[in-house]
Amino acid sequence: MFESLSDKLSGVFEGLRRRGALHETDVTEALREVRLALLDADVALPVVRDFIAKVRERAVGAEVMDSVSPGQQVVKIVNDVMIEQLGGEGAVPINLNAAAPVPILMVGLQGSGKTTTSGKLARRFRERLRKKVLLASLDTQRPAAQLQLAQLAEQASVPSLAIVAGETPVQIAHRAMDTARREGYDIVILDTAGRLSIDEALMDEVRQVREATNPAETLLVVDAMTGQDAVNTAKAFNDALGITGIVMTRMDGDARGGAALSMRAITGAPIKLVGVGEKQDALEDFHPERVAGRILGMGDIVGLVEKASETIDQEEAERLAARMMKGKFDLEDFGQQLKQIAKMGSLSGLIGMLPGAGKLKAQLEGADLDNKILKRQAAIISSMTMKERRNPDIIKASRKKRIAAGSGTQVQEVNRLLKQFDDMSGMMKKMNKLGQKGLMRHGLGALMPQGMQQKQRPF
To answer: Which of 150, 193, 303, 347 is the most core-located residue (most Cβ within 10 A)?
Structure first.
């Protein structure tokens, strides 16, 4: 999402860090570059002005100019201001502090991902909070909208309100709340109709539903890929309704990301959740400090660890680690490892969570950072016999042809996978031979192939 902005800001900060002492003109020049980068990323002009003013005020003080590492201090100030801009430290949770059944009103334009997000949210409440959730579609405008929500409810394993033809959105909302009270539901998610553009009829309809249900949350769903239009949409809905939170969808896309940086300042409402994919579990809390870290190239290690703990089978991971350390790692284990990685999401998304990801992505340019490569590798391993997986050395030309044909790949891809496995096995053997003390003494460079060890430089 923030790749272009992150690359530009990294270049600016790299220049600042290389300098010893900093003068006010250096800071001014750097902030001019930051300003242009933010505008290019589609951040709203008033937000950019405020951002630059706050950074300048803190960055030109004697405390920064006279510090041991002034460039690093300026980066820290930009990071702090960016966190403030995005909403402050920590995620803002969905407010469920109301008598059950708690109504949550979902609003937004057509095509923003509102109905899909309603299904994801229902699943999240059921799985994480063990809540009994009812989904109700109030969309009488779009053909088959109510059927779509019913299908999403089925996928999320939660009930949806029965469809009754001819009811108005307010009547459906009343029936949903009555049903939830009678049947002991904890939460009711009310998915309202969208329009292709903001109009008074849409706002009136949503106002009536809000007055009828008094929701604990009025969540605006906006598509991050629409850039500045998403900010304008948020402002219009907030002015008309007073939204309590924002859900940004398609945050895994390649948009410039300025909408996220503008939302809090323009509406005063926090971004509470972000959609990061099409799967039903691809809905995450919005952590301003983590997003700022990713934009500034500092990574999001906490988020990466959380994602791993949610998706990876702990026992299986420990079993694989033990086999690797004993030098018993084979292609069957490698296949299991690939499956575990695939569960965590897109490879480019995972790399974006690592510190210095900009440089890493540049080095891996053209390396096909696509989950399709994992699927192809898994298919290659699946086409092998158990004997071949346990003893890869027996895989010669005729076997490679058979494996390639069986997996729908080329022999070159089979060779690449075997080479990758050999490299990993070699690294594991070195680790085992060096031991913990050896690794600490020689560093990770000792694990690199011989020709590459001399190329490594300390950071």
So the answer is: 193
pLDDT in tens, 300-330: 444 455 555 555 566 666 666 666 656 667 8
pLDDT, tens digit (0-9, with 9 covering 90-100), for 348-359: 555 455 444 455
Contact 108, 221 (CB under 8 A): yes
CATH number at residue 173: 3.40.50.300
- Asked whether 378 and 339 are in contact (CB, 8 A), the reply is yes
Range of the domain at 62: 3-86
The total domain count for the chain is 3
* Cα–Cα nearest to 276, from 249, 300, 254, 301: 249
- Tokens 């405008």 found at: 141
Residue 454 belongs to a domain: no
Q: How many CA within 13 A on the CB side of residue 242?
A: 6
Contact 12, 33 (CB under 8 A): yes
The CB-based long-range contact list for 126-129 (8 Å cut-off, 24+ gap) reads 126/156, 126/157, 126/158, 129/96
Q: Is the Cβ–Cβ distance between 187 and 133 less than 8 Å?
A: yes
Give the separation between CA 340 and CA 334, rounded to whole angstroms: 10
Rg (CA), the chain: 26
Distance CA 225, CA 228 (A): 9
Q: Which of 129-143, 225-239, 403-417 has the lowest mean pLDDT?
A: 225-239
Taking Cα atoms as reference points, which of 191, 218, 192, 188 lies closest to residue 99? Answer: 188
Strand ranges for 145-211 from DSSP E: 187-191
- Contact (Cβ atoms closer than 8 angstroms) between residue 53 and residue 108: no
Does 117 lie in the same domain as 64?
Answer: no
